[in-house]
Amino acid sequence: EPFQQLTPREKMTMVSTGLPNPRNALFLVLSLFILPERCHSFLTLIAFSHRTRHLSYVRESPENLAEDMRKQAEKLRQEVASFQQKKEANAEAERRSLKKVQEEKQAIRERYSAMLPILKGDGQTLQERIDFPPRQPDGTSYIRTCEASLPLGLILGESEDIPGLTVVDEVVEGSNGQEAGVRVGDIVRACTACQTMMKAPTWQILAGGIGMPETQRMMFNIDGRPFEEVMDAISSNRMDPEGRPVILVVERLED
């Protein structure tokens, strides 16, 4: 039979197009005139294919095409909006994470630093935040400043646990040190110290003058200093012409 003798690809070609190709035209003629009773199903299939193609043309009318385009555009807008929301959410999460890290770093710095008067080269004294790396392990300590007038009423000594550090061994009851908040066990990290230096205007130096003595107060880092040098630095505050209290920077264990 003509239709049965076709290859699967030729059959698909006839069904999809609804028209025979030149190679199969003879089979169609023979089927129509010689074997009409055998070709009823085949002709019905071709007619169904034509109706299907006609329905597809109806579905693809301008109105339907416009509606499909609107749906696709809306779907695309939703995808873009979803992508933008995810992008903004990721950016916000990254900002929060960065802010948290910065806040943690700032909290650590404030825990181990202090605002102190720093003597500059031009003779000015400016308040600056100075960092003090912790000497106690595991982040169990913090930095604190205490201001007390002489005499302090403190007994200091060299640390037995950490060489090169000066610690408070005793605080006299009712002393200036106690009123300033100094506690037994505090590690003294820095203090104010006074030093007398010769100061002279430029014209006097050019003329061969030696200048006039001037006492200046500065911060003295105690870490690693000999104990006698630490005691001399604290005692030198007696020379302060303004009579300001001694500033002690101590590292204290948490309660």
Topology diagram in text:
Blueprint: H1 8-17, H2 25-33, H3 40-59, H4 62-111, E1 113-119, E2 125-131, E3 141-148, E4 154-158, E5 166-171, H5 176-179, E6 187-199, H6 202-206, E7 212-221, H7 227-235, E8 246-253
Antiparallel strand pairs: 1-2, 3-8, 4-5, 5-6, 6-7, 6-8
Helix pairs in contact: 1-3
Search tags:
single chain, 255 residues, alpha+beta, six-stranded antiparallel sheet, two-stranded antiparallel ribbon, 8 strands, 25% strand
Give a written overview of the molecule.
17% of the residues are buried. The chain contains seven helices and eight strands; from the N terminus they run ααααβββββαβαβαβ. About 17% of the residues have low confidence. The protein is 42% helix and 25% strand. The strands form two sheets. Strands 3, 4, 5, 6, 7 and 8 form a six-stranded antiparallel β-sheet that branches. It is an alpha+beta fold and 255 residues long. The protein is elongated and about 110 Å long. The longest helix has 50 residues. A hairpin with a 5-residue loop joins β1 and β2. α1 crosses α3.
What is the rounded Rg?
A: 47 Å
Spans of at least 5 consecutive residues with low confidence: 15-30, 32-40, 42-59
Strand segment count = 8
SSE topology string:
HHHHEEEEEHEHEHE
Task: Provide a short characterization of the protein structure.
The protein has 255 residues and is of the alpha+beta class. It has seven helices and eight strands. The strands form two sheets. Strands 3, 4, 5, 6, 7 and 8 form a six-stranded antiparallel β-sheet that branches.
